[in-house]
Specification:
Layout (H helix, E strand, L loop, with lengths): L7 H12 L2 H6 L32 E2 L6 E4 L2 E9 L4 E6 L30 E2 L1 H8 L1 E3 L12 H8 L19 E3 L2 H11 L1 E4 L6 H11 L3 E4 L8 E4 L17 H31 L7 H8 L12 H7 L8 E5 L2 E7 L5 E7 L9 H18 L10 E7 L2 E7 L6 H5 L12 H20 L5 E2 L8 E3 L5 E3 L6 E2 L14 E3 L11 H6 L1 E3 H17 L15 H10 L16 H16 L10 H15 L1
Helix pairs in contact: 1-7, 12-14, 12-17, 14-16, 16-17
Length: 617
C-alpha cells in the first residue's frame, strides 16, 4: 500500500532528496564502462556521456566500435582523440540522401551540402583546409553523366566546399595534389576522418570549468537555460547547505542526526499504516471470510446470485430430513423449491464446531465451496451441472444446483435404483459414455485455462428423467496452468498438488508423482467406462485382494482374453452389440494405463466413443 500524500514517509524522502550532495547529481549517473576512443570512463572534460555534465557541445553517445557526437544536428563517429591536443578525428556516421544520379549510391557517404561547424566550438584544422584547397582533378574534370549532379560537379572543381569553414580560398592553379577521381578521394577522406579542433582557452565556459575543477568540483550546465548556464557541482555549491562542507568537523554528527530523524519518521509511518489497517479490518468483525473472498472475485468472474440463509432454509422445509436426496462427507443435499417454482438441489456444507479436530475439515469445506462456485460460474455445457446460486453464512455454506430427479449413475448400477438396471440398455450406456466424454473434453479443451475435475465417479454423474446425464461436484476441481514449453494440443497443462479423489478412481501416476494433468481425469473416466461395461463397483473388497480395484480386475481379465467374464449380464451380447462392448472395453483399457503418457486424451476418447455409437446403431 503506497503511503498517502504528505505522509511521514513522503517527508523523509523529501528530506533525503534535498540533503543529497549536488556533485552526486552529475557524477553518479550511469556511464558505460567502455566509451571509445577514450581510455577512461567517464570521458575527460569537456566530453561527457551524462546529460547535464561537461560542456553542452561535447555530449557524446558511448557505443562500440565508435562513440558518436552531434554537431549542428549532424551525427559523427569519433575515430580518434588526442589527449595532448584539442583535436578530434570525425567521420559522418550515416549516409546522405541524394538526387537520382547514377553516382549517388556510389558516393552516398558524401554530404549533399557543405558541412557547417558554425555556432559550435569546433573548426576544421588548418592542415585539412589546406589539403582541400590544393586538391584538383587531374586532366579534364569528371563529367558525372552530364549535368544531372550539380553539387558533385562543384565539389570536383572546389573540394574545399565540403567544409563551409574551409573556403574555398584563392590558390594558384597547381596540379601537384591532383586526383583522377576527386569524389572517390573525398569519400575515402571522410571514411578515414576529418580533423577538427577547438580552443580550450576560449570563452567563459572553459575558464569557469578550470576554476571549478581546481576546487574539486564537477563541471555541468543547466539544460533548461537556453544559454546553457554554467554550473559547478561540488560541496561548496549554493544548493548544498553549509553544514555539509567537508571542512566542517561536525558534518558527520549532523548526518547521523538526520539519519536518526529519518528512521523515526519511517517508524511512525509504519505504525500509522498498521493502526489504520487494523481499524479497517475491525470495522466489520462479523463478516464471513468466505464472503470476503467471493466478493473480491466478483469482478473476475460472473458469479451466480447470492441467496440468504433464510430463503434456502425455507425452500427446503428447514432442511427437512424427508427432503434429503443425498449425503456426503462435508454435508447433505436437499430438495428445495424456490419462490419462482423452480425445483433445485441445495447442498448444505455444515459448519463444524470450533474444535482443533474440525479445523482441517472446516478449511477444506470452505475451500471446496469457493472453488466450486468459481469453477462452475465460468463454464456452460449441457452435460455439466449448472450452479444457480450460493449462500455463505456462519450457519452453513449452501450451493444451489439443477435438480436432477433420477439419481446418479452409481444409484442405477449399484445403489438404490439398481432394480431399474433393465433401463440401462447398451444403447443408453453408450449414449451416457458419449455425453460424459463430451463434458470432460469441454473442460480440457474449451476452457482457458483448462479444468481438471479430479473426481469423475459414477456417484458424481447425475441421471435425468430421459436418461441424459450431467457431471457435477466440482469441489476438488483445479485450474491447470499452461506451461511455456507446451507444443502439443494433446497436453492441456499440469499443476503440482497433493492427490485427492475417490479410491478406485484415483490416477496411480498422479498418486505417485503429485503431478495433476488432464490425463488424471481420463483415468477416472476409464473406470466409469468399465462400470458401464461390467456393472461392477469401482472398489469391491469381496474380490481377490489384487483385484479390489475394478481397473486392476478388468485389466487382468482383458489381458487374459476373458472379457466375457466381466460383462454385465444385463447387456445382450449378440452381433454388433458384442463388437461395441469389446470396443468400449478396449478404450477403457487404454484409459486406465498405469503411465499417463500411454493414455489417450479426452478429445480422442470422445471421438472414439462417437465412432462406436455410430457403428452400433
Amino acid at each position: 500500500m503506497a503511503p498517502p500524500p504528505h505522509s511521514p514517509f513522503s517527508a523523509a524522502i523529501l528530506i533525503l532528496h534535498f540533503l543529497l550532495p549536488a556533485a552526486a547529481a552529475c557524477s553518479l549517473k550511469a556511464v558505460p564502462a567502455v566509451c571509445p576512443p577514450f581510455s577512461s570512463s567517464p570521458p575527460p572534460y569537456p566530453f561527457s556521456a551524462s546529460p547535464g555534465c561537461g560542456h553542452p557541445s561535447f555530449q557524446i553517445n558511448c557505443s562500440t566500435p565508435h562513440s558518436t557526437i552531434s554537431i549542428n544536428h549532424l551525427s559523427f563517429s569519433l575515430l580518434h582523440f588526442d589527449p595532448n591536443s584539442s583535436s578530434l578525428l570525425l567521420s559522418p556516421s550515416h549516409s546522405f540522401s541524394h538526387s537520382n544520379c547514377s553516382s549517388s549510391s556510389r558516393f552516398s557517404s558524401i554530404p549533399s551540402r557543405s558541412i557547417s561547424l558554425s555556432g559550435s566550438p569546433f573548426r576544421p584544422s588548418d592542415a585539412l583546409c589546406s589539403r582541400l584547397n590544393n586538391l584538383r582533378p587531374c586532366g579534364s574534370p569528371n563529367s558525372l553523366n552530364g549535368s544531372c549532379c550539380p553539387w558533385e560537379c562543384k565539389l570536383i572543381h572546389s573540394p574545399a566546399l565540403l567544409l563551409q569553414e574551409c573556403g574555398p580560398t584563392p590558390s594558384p592553379a597547381t596540379y601537384q595534389g591532383c586526383q583522377g577521381d576527386v569524389l572517390d578521394f573525398l569519400k575515402k577522406l571522410l571514411e578515414m576522418g576529418i580533423e577538427v579542433e577547438w580552443d580550450s582557452s576560449d570563452g567563459a565556459y572553459f575558464g569557469s570549468c578550470r576554476a571549478c575543477q581546481s576546487s574539486k568540483g564537477v563541471c555541468g550546465y543547466n539544460s533548461s537555460d537556453p544559454k546553457k548556464q554554467f554550473l559547478c557541482f561540488n560541496f561548496q555549491s549554493r544548493v548544498s547547505p553549509p553544514w555539509m562542507h567537508r571542512q566542517d568537523p561536525s558534518h558527520i554528527a549532523m548526518l547521523g542526526l538526520i539519519f536518526v530523524i529519518t528512521c523515526l519518521l519511517l517508524l511512525v509511518s509504519v505504525v500509522v499504516m498498521i493502526f489504520r489497517s487494523r481499524r479497517f479490518n475491525s470495522s466489520r468483525p462479523d463478516e464471513d471470510p468466505t464472503s470476503i473472498f467471493l466478493r473480491r472475485h466478483r469482478s473476475l468472474s460472473l458469479l451466480p446470485p447470492v441467496f440468504t440463509y433464510e430463503e434456502l432454509e425455507l425452500s427446503t422445509g428447514h432442511f427437512d430430513q424427508s427432503r434429503k436426496i443425498g449425503d456426503g462427507g462435508f454435508g447433505s443435499v436437499y430438495l428445495g423449491r424456490l419462490p419462482d417454482g423452480r425445483a433445485v438441489a441445495v447442498k448444505h456444507l455444515h459448519r463444524q464446531r470450533p474444535t482443533a479436530a474440525a479445523a482441517a475439515a472446516r478449511a477444506f469445506s470452505a475451500k471446496s465451496f469457493c472453488n466450486e462456485i468459481l469453477i462452475l460460474s465460468s463454464i456452460d455445457h449441457p452435460n455439466l451441472v449448472k450452479l444457480h446460486g450460493y449462500c455463505s453464512d456462519p450457519r452453513g455454506l449452501l450451493l444451489v444446483y439443477d435438480y436432477v430427479p433420477n439419481g446418479t449413475l452409481a444409484d442405477h448400477l449399484h445403489g438404490r435404483l439398481r432394480h431399474r438396471r433393465q433401463l440401462l440398455t447398451w444403447q443408453v450406456r453408450l449414449d451416457m459414455a458419449v455425453q460424459i466424454g463430451l463434458a470432460i473434453e469441454y473442460l480440457h479443451f474449451s476452457v482457458s485455462p483448462p479444468i481438471a475435475h479430479r473426481d469423475i465417479t459414477s456417484s458424481n454423474i447425475f441421471v435425468e428423467g430421459d436418461m441424459r446425464i450431467k457431471v457435477g461436484d466440482f469441489g476438488l476441481s483445479r485450474l491447470l496452468e499452461i506451461p511455456d514449453e507446451m507444443n502439443s494440443s494433446s497436453s492441456c497443462g499440469s499443476v503440482w498438488t497433493g492427490p485427492q479423489g475417490t479410491p478406485g478412481y484415483l490416477d496411480p501416476d498422479y498418486h505417485h508423482s503429485f503431478l495433476l494433468t488432464e490425463k488424471s481425469d481420463v483415468y477416472s473416466f476409464g473406470v466409469v467406462l468399465l462400470e458401464l461395461v461390467s456393472g461392477l463397483r469401482a472398489v469391491d473388497q469381496s474380490r481377490d485382494k489384487r483385484e479390489f480395484a475394478l481397473a486392476d480386475f478388468a485389466v487382468s481379465k482383458i489381458q487374459m482374453g476373458m472379457l466375457h467374464q466381466m460383462v454385465d449380464p444385463m447387456i445382450a451380447l449378440d452381433g454388433a452389440l458384442s463388437e461395441g462392448v469389446h470396443a468400449m472395453a478396449e478404450l477403457a483399457f487404454r484409459c486406465v494405463a498405469a503411465e499417463k503418457d500411454d493414455r489417450p486424451d479426452s478429445r480422442e476418447v470422445a471421438e472414439e466413443l462417437k465412432r462406436i455409437r455410430n457403428k452400433s446403431r
